[in-house]
Amino acid sequence: MDQYGPVRDHSNRGLPPFYRGLPPFYRGLPPFYRDMASELDIFVGNTTLIDEEVYQLWLDGYSVAEAVSLRLQGGVLERSGTSVSVLQSDTRDHFRTFQMLERLLHAPTRLLQQLLFQIPPPRLAVLVQRWGWGGIGG
């Protein structure tokens, strides 16, 4: 004890072996959450991925199920080495992204100025051209 109160020991001494090496905020979590936190992988990126083939299927008015079927017929599983469930999820995610982009595709200058979707300029040009504007700024 010093003049300001008890001296706190912030080292790992005195902690059970399970707690040693864990950041302080983990120490109060039940074991289930600690285990789950140690096995969770997260990828964070800021570039919006656009598959031009899926974009064209969306523009042509296909549903997600129809687009998945057409992609399967086109041999995408053989080219990518993925599963049907991953293909369905990927197609659904792309369609959702396109639906969010749709309001911006009506005004290409707004699409260029927005910050939510980080899309490389060459890909933006393809999106706008296929939408029917003929080019950015059209």
Description:
The structure is a single chain. It contains 7 helices and no strands. The chain has helices at residues 31-38, 52-59, 64-73, 76-80, 84-105, 108-113, 121-131. Helix 2 (52-59) runs parallel beside helix 7 and helix 3 (64-73) crosses helix 5. The longest helix is centred in the C-terminal third of the chain and has 22 residues, at 84-105.
Give the topology string: H per helix, E per strand. HHHHHHH
Helix percent band: 40-55%
Regions with little confidence, pLDDT below 50 for 5+ residues: none
The fraction of residues assigned to DSSP E strands is: under 5%
Discrete helix count: 7
What's the pLDDT, averaged over the residues?
Answer: 79
Distance between the termini: 74 Å
Largest sheet, strands/sense/barrel = none
Q: Choose one word for the global shape.
A: flat
Radius of gyration: 25 Å
Q: Which class best fits the helix and strand makeup?
A: mainly alpha
Report the count of strand segments: 0
Helix-strand blueprint:
Elements (H helix, E strand, L loop, with lengths): L30 H8 L13 H8 L4 H10 L2 H5 L3 H22 L2 H6 L7 H11 L7
GO cellular component, one term: nucleus
Pfam families: FIBP
InterPro entries: FIBP
Please give a handful of descriptors for the protein shown.
mainly alpha, 138 residues, 51% helix, 7 helices
